[in-house]
Amino acid sequence: MLRVLQLLAVFCLLGFQAVEAQIDWPDGRRAAVVLTYDDGIDTHLDNAFADLKEFNLKGTFYVTGSSTSLRQRMDEWRELAQAGNELGNHTLFHPCLSDTGTDKREWVKPEQDLKNYSVSRIIEEIRVANTLLEAVDGEAARTYAYTCVDMTAGGQSFVEGLAGEFEFARGGGEKLTTDSETLDFFRVPSWSVTGMDGSEMIGLVKNAVERGGFLVLMFHGVGGEYLSVSREAHRELAEYLQQNRGEIWNDTFLNVMEYLKSQRNDASR
């Protein structure tokens, strides 16, 4: 009886590992890491983009349509996109919920409070932001990132309404994706790295490699502004990704998600 239980335990363990190993990454790589940057702020141009260029990496920059940086430095944002980075949609005015039940955000203005929005209003503003971004980079396909990771407007989910505009959307949740078959393409988890040092972020990457997963990191400020990581930490992570590119695939959120979707389609045939 003990032997049977031991064999069952081994079988369960192997089964668990098989689930986590089902993502077949290109070129024999063991994991994918996507770097995303929210809000379209100056430190993205001054620091993040400079580091990505130096270490030959790509990122996805979720730009708010009303971004002061986008308005004042549009040619530089266009250059960032032309270098192979993705400009993602982060709404027109960055509305968020002022009260999530667990988090009160006193900085949210009433006119930008998602509880005062309707689903049709947020979807229309997202469409306008898409048009604006296409005027910057010339691209029709792009992805969306929920502002403050909020998915409701006026108490109703607007996730379903995104389907006419996008195929993929980034959420939050501090979770590593290890199973592409059950991944919700409109609620892709990401990991906020605010305040982390280089070794902490590299630790997340190493865990992704060990588990064969898909890690999406969410940055805001880089070396300044708000919700920031230090420039040194960002560079330490970038250098690590460059040095380990043989086992870690770095690309834009759109490119990695399209790969995962193609894998799912192939498996269903």
Write the layout of secondary structure elements.
Elements (H helix, E strand, L loop, with lengths): L1 H19 L10 E8 L3 H13 L4 E5 L4 H5 L1 H9 L3 E4 L29 H19 L6 E2 L6 E2 L2 E2 L11 E2 L20 E2 L5 H14 L2 E6 L11 H13 L4 E3 L2 H16 L1
Parallel strand pairs: 1-2, 1-9, 1-10, 2-3, 4-7, 8-9
Antiparallel strand pairs: 5-6
Helix pairs in contact: 2-7, 6-7
Which parts are unreliable, with pLDDT below 50 for 5 consecutive residues or more? 1-21
H/E series: HEHEHHEHEEEEEHEHEH
- Number of helices, counting only DSSP H or I runs of 4 residues or more: 8
Distance between the termini: 41 Å
Largest sheet: number of strands, sense, barrel closure: 6 strands, parallel
Q: What's the helical proportion of residues?
A: 40-55%
Which percent band covers the strand fraction?
A: 5-15%
Structural class: alpha/beta
What's the Cα radius of gyration?
Answer: 19 Å
The strand count comes to 10
